[in-house]
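Quick log. Single chain, no ligands specified.
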Amino acid sequence: MNALIFVTTPPSRKATTTNTQIPVAQEKADAANDAAAADANDLNVSMNRGERLKAIEQRIAKLKFDADTKAAAALSAASEAQDVRDSLDALRVQGENRRTELTGSAAIRCGETGRANGASSIKNR
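-> predicted structure:
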């Protein structure tokens, strides 16, 4: 059974739109057509049922392996992203603490300076 899947955009839409998504969609459609054609070639009519089933099982095993690899990569990326978020949160807290510390010491200095100015103004009277 040779079955090809064609996914394309209508010519009128393609001709009248300026959307940049169309070429990307067309590339994806072309890739899907190529994959369908490759599957059709792998499972051609001259194969007997056992050979076709074996080819299908091999294809499923490859797809599962690819999916597992991508899932592991996604988990790793998520873990790295969480580590970066934690690091940024720690830096934010450290910055807030430092700001509070500097604001407090600046207020103390302003208070001492104000007292010193007040004392000198009393002496000048």
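Helices lie at 11-16, 21-42, 49-124.
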